[in-house]
Amino acid sequence: MAGIYVHVPFCTSFCTYCDFYSITQLGKKPLYLEGLEREVHRQAEFFNGVPPTTLYLGGGTPSLLSSEELSRVFVCLGTVFLRPHGLSFEQLDEVTMEVNPDDVTYERAVFWKSLGISRISMGVQSFHPEVLRWMGRRHTAEQAIRAYHDLRRAGFDNISLDLIFGYESGVGSDVLAAWDQDLAQMIALAPEHISAYQLSIEPGSKLAQWVQQGKVRELDPELSAQEYALLQSRLAAAGYLQYEISNFAKPGRCAIHNRSYWLREPYLGLGPAAHSFDGTRRWWNPEDVQMYAAGEGVVSEDLTPRDAFNEQWMLGLRRAEGFPLASLDPQLYANVTGDVERLVRQGSLQKSSEGYIKIPSEKLFVSDGIICELMLD
Predict the structure, then answer these.
(1) Each residue of 119-129: pLDDT tens digit?
(2) What gap in Å lies between CA 284 and CA 304, rounded to an integer?
(3) Which domains does the chain have, with CATH numbers?
(4) pTM score, two decimals?
């Protein structure tokens, strides 16, 4: 499997928690599109004669692209990566686009479907008006629900919705009750896929400034852990399978594109700040549209066997099913055998009879600490 990720860096405003590369200068869209087209042609041979299987447009806010701009992106990608194989976007395993609720109309959704987009990922984050305002989100809860139904009417049968937990601002005194209400509304909508992320204080974000100024305090980790446990139990009861730390899906609806990241399969990242991986080397584009359009500022690194070993732990243990121990370098694994056995005895890791290693579901919330114990310096 191999996928393409396209980073669209434009936003009309910044969310309080976000540290992804994005800009509000929409006037730079022509420069971005020119740079993207040049990069696509430079990377025409990335897949070595094999067509990609997935496409993911993320951001930023891809839904800020007009119909003409989005068509231009799809024409370029299709001409270089699909047409030589006689393929169309409808024939790919998955074509996902991230959207903001306030950008969605029925007419736009119909157009997106006509391009070959088969899956929509929409950032809802909360259904509480006070929380949405505190987060700096552009939409209301009503807009999110209306957008969801417009997507359904347009024919989308694979929709992923995002939620965020791990905060107390804007929800009053009962954090768990507010979170349970969000989960109930999400389950009532019944999307095929749900992503739920714990709010993190990212350096450089507005939220980080508020914490430093004492305007906001971080939520008690124990309360966040209770929210995560509630998330797991509520979604399991509603028929969702947890297949990764932050991701839940109805049977057969796990995200296909993201699987490439967790399995360390090659993928091509296009656009400013996008990362790529060819199996042995990683590289990433500059977080600057001007430099990106000029083809400057690309940074790369060749991974050592130790780097690859650490990545296998870091990415493989994110998956609920884990990964096969046999895929690890045996010489490097010998350095952590004792740690693995200790963590198994403690119940922080599980080994299956098929040779898989994983973090049990009740320990996924503290997975970062477990994974750190297995990393080699």
Answers:
(1) 999 999 999 99
(2) 17
(3) 3-261 (3.80.30.20), 305-377 (1.10.10)
(4) 0.94
